[in-house]
């Protein structure tokens, strides 16, 4: 179970839990998912001791705390529209180098539907081509190539 999944499970069981995520992941999507799951704070493992103590106190007192090193990324993510599950599937295959015909065959959908999804992905990620979409999605933590 990932930290985000654990956070969601804990918050379901204990809605008033005050969870501070400590992570090496600095991608905007990872941070966003953690906060959506119920974390009240997010800090990177590289945080200095004094800031970590401040984060713990803030979250303990019921406030949110976002590591200053990643706060701009979260703000940037908030401005993006979320990708649908199908758009994420298409994006993962595009990032692996699949062409539209290959994506269509893999997902058992029409090629014209793939083109529509790719267009939506470009629009939502504010990119111009497949390479830029894959790069942006990987950098932001929207997808991984497992």
Task: Explain what this protein looks like in three dimensions.
The protein folds into 2 domains: about 5-80, Response regulator (Rossmann fold), CATH 3.40.50.2300; about 85-140, Winged helix-like DNA-binding domain superfamily/Winged helix DNA-binding domain (Arc Repressor Mutant, subunit A, Orthogonal Bundle), CATH 1.10.10. The radius of gyration is 18 Å and the shape is elongated. The mean pLDDT is about 90. The protein contains 8 helices and 3 strands; from the N terminus they run H-E-H-E-H-E-H-H-H-H-H. It has helices spanning about 5-15, 30-35, 50-60, 70-80, 85-95, 100-105, 110-125, 130-140; strands at about 20-25, 40-45, 65. Strands 1-2-3 form a 3-stranded parallel beta sheet. It has about 150 residues and is mainly alpha-helical. The two termini are about 15 Å apart.
């Amino acid at each position: 179970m990932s930290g985000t999944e654990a956070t969601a499970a804990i918050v379901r069981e204990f809605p008033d839990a005050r969870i501070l995520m400590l992570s090496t992941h600095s991608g905007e999507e990872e941070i966003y998912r953690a906060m959506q799951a119920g974390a009240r704070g997010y800090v990177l493992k590289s945080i200095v001791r004094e800031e970590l103590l401040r984060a713990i106190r803030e979250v303990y007192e019921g406030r949110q705390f976002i590591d200053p090193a990643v706060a701009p990324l979260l703000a940037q993510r908030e401005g993006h529209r979320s990708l649908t599950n199908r758009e994420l599937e298409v994006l993962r295959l595009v990032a692996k180098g699949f062409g539209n015909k290959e994506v269509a065959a893999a997902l058992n959908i029409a090629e014209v539907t793939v083109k529509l999804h790719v267009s939506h992905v470009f629009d939502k990620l504010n990119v111009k081509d497949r390479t830029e979409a894959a790069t942006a999605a990987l950098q932001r933590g929207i997808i991984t190539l497992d």
